[in-house]
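# nightly structure sweep
# worker-07 picked up a monomer target from the shared queue
# config: single-sequence mode, recycle default, output format = C-alpha cells
# input follows
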Amino acid sequence: MPDFMRKFIGLLLIFAAIGVASCQALLTSCSPDASVISSALPR
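# output follows
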C-alpha cells in the first residue's frame, strides 16, 4: 500500500471518529430521551 493511501485512510478514520463523537454529543445535548438513543446505538 502506498504511503499517501495510508495517510489518507488514517485521516479518514480520525475524521469519522470525530464525526461520530460530535454526533453523539449533539444527540445527548439536544434530546431529552438521550439515554434511549445512546443505549440503542451499537458500541
